[in-house]
Design brief:
Blueprint (H helix, E strand, L loop, with lengths): L5 E4 L1 H9 L13 H7 L3 E6 L2 H9 L3 H11 L4 E6 L12 H13 L4 E4 L10 H9 L3 E7 L8 H13 L4 E6 L6 H14 L4 E5 L6 H11 L3 E4 L13 H8 L5 H16 L15 H4 L3 H13 L6 H14 L9 H15 L8 H7 L12 H6 L1
Parallel strand pairs: 1-2, 1-8, 2-3, 3-4, 4-5, 5-6, 6-7, 7-8
Helix pairs in contact: 2-11, 5-6, 7-8, 8-9, 13-15, 14-15
Amino acid sequence: MNKKPYIVDTTLRDGQQSLIATRLKMEDFEDQLIDFDQVGYYSMEVWGGATYDSCIRYLNEDPWIRLKTIREKLKTTKIQMLLRGQNLVGYRNYADDVVELFVNKVADYKMDIIRVFDALNDIRNLEKSIEVAKKRNIHVQGTISYTVSPVHNLQYYLNYTKELVERGVDSIAVKDMAGLLKPKDAYDLVKEIKKKFDIPVDIHSHATTGLASMAYFAAVEAGADILDLALSPFANGTSEPAIEPFVYTYDLDLNTKTIMRLVDHFWKVRSKYSEYDVKMESIDARILNAQIPGGMLSNLISQLKSQKAEDKLNEVLQEVPRVRKDLGYPPLVTPTSQIVGVQAVLNVLTGKRYSMITNEVKNYLKGLYGKPPAPVDEELYKLA
């Protein structure tokens, strides 16, 4: 077996974002931060993504106080955040001076690692945030938004990795938000990246389709350095695979007693959030066709419930890949997942495709989010 992988614990960010709609309050984990700090993780993903928005919109918390508290209590464990490039933690592109101000403030709060991604893999949308973070000596993890389409092949991802490396990123993350990464593809991608570039590789996948654990094992065999995992109460389903089986499989030098104490605590915590719980206990093979991330699935269900149209879910799941094709095969991750998802729902509920076109789709077609991976549908472009 190859060297043992390092572990990023995603429980406090993507784990709870994927399974309880980012509703985890600080009061439910603050006292456990001391335990987290004793486990021995490579890093913990604790901020960014939807947590910033959720703190303000739903939890009545200051996201900066949340970050300050986490930083103060995690004295030996590195912390990291997810940054949407020029989108920051929002849903549209911001001006360079706003990006500079935000990243500098993150640095002031002593963030160790920033995982920066763009939904369209448009390197232009990452350049400013990479530049500012590097000036502040933050470890920048350049991210591949992974998806499957006629244009997204091995060479496409190697070309994009080259662009990231040329911008000076410190490591590469393969972000497979919908759980589409097959074991062989994971092996081939990691093997080629490691062959061509002297850089650490982190694999991030979701258990939604049942492929993630197999892809992780294959990636480690190919030389992957880091795996994203969550504690079992906030793992599997639409989240990342669970930490515990990987500790056992690779005989990782982590504090298992502390892990189990945290697991016991968070099972109790999760039961408090049943109102928001996606309650996905098994895999959903429909996602292999629809290619949507876990959080997007719960949002689609919520939208349809609000319109009393839950029975239309399968139609919407069939419409999503058609809209995605029309828009030039964008990877489905914030904000493109919302753009495609809302338009697919409208197409189904109105009964006529594109009889209503959202402003976000119009802005996407204008190039305001970046360059689509493939040409967009000409008829849709004219309609918009």
